[in-house]
Amino acid sequence: MWRLQNVGDIFDKISLYSANLKTVTLQEVQSFLIHEQNDELSNDDRAVSRFICDFLKDPQREVQEPHFSIGEFLDFLFSKQNDLWDPSKDTVYHDMSRPLAHYWIASSHNTYLTGDQLSSESSVEAYARCLRMGCRCIELDCWDGPDGMPFIYHGHTFTTKIKFMDVIRTIKEHAFATSEYPVILSIEDNCSLPQQRKMATAMQ
């Protein structure tokens, strides 16, 4: 991996792998894969050639020795094809039968907020988005509402308020849209006892 301080360093580094500073040839791509990526693919000319063609997706450039333009090479550097992530880990591969406390849990703080913690909008859509992204622990900051039912907002600030019941309905609708695993409701309960009872009834 390159340890670069600014964008200019990227172009200085690219000059090591582009003799004419316009294109990156098959051999230069191989050199990059060897010296920067330690990629075993670099040992196979045909595999590297196929890799470049697959990335370019241009039938007219499917030749024996394809090349990148500098722009295409930069696109490759920041592309999914150059990602460190192992795609085999896209699906659950751990033992999921152990106690809950044995796992790191994807969690959200102030889930309802769409911006800063002082004056931004609160939104039920924020809960839907968070759950659909795989989050399994979401936060509800609950305060007494004027109609006998709690609302949710960042207390003692200028953030807007949303109804507790709207949030509960949204959670029910989206909780298991992308994951079958439990959802933890982290409730900061600032409500009076009567409204706490209504919260409990709503979640039964």
From TrEMBL:
Q: Which InterPro entries match?
A: EF-hand-dom_pair, PI-PLC_fam, PLC-like_Pdiesterase_TIM-brl, PLCG_EF-hand_2, PLipase_C_PInositol-sp_X_dom
Highest taxon in the source lineage: Eukaryota
Quickly give the catalysed reaction: a 1,2-diacyl-sn-glycero-3-phospho-(1D-myo-inositol-4,5-bisphosphate) + H2O = 1D-myo-inositol 1,4,5-trisphosphate + a 1,2-diacyl-sn-glycerol + H(+)
Arranged from A to Z, the UniProt key words for this protein are: Hydrolase, Lipid degradation, Lipid metabolism
Q: Its Gene Ontology biological processes?
A: lipid catabolic process; phosphatidylinositol metabolic process; phosphatidylinositol-mediated signaling; positive regulation of epithelial cell migration; release of sequestered calcium ion into cytosol
Record EC number: 3.1.4.11
Keyword check for Hydrolase, yes or no: yes
Q: Which PROSITE patterns match?
A: PIPLC_X_DOMAIN (PS50007)
Q: PANTHER family under this entry? A: 1-PHOSPHATIDYLINOSITOL 4,5-BISPHOSPHATE PHOSPHODIESTERASE GAMMA, PHOSPHOINOSITIDE-SPECIFIC PHOSPHOLIPASE C FAMILY PROTEIN
* Protein name (record): Phosphoinositide phospholipase C
Q: Which organism is it from?
A: Asbolus verrucosus
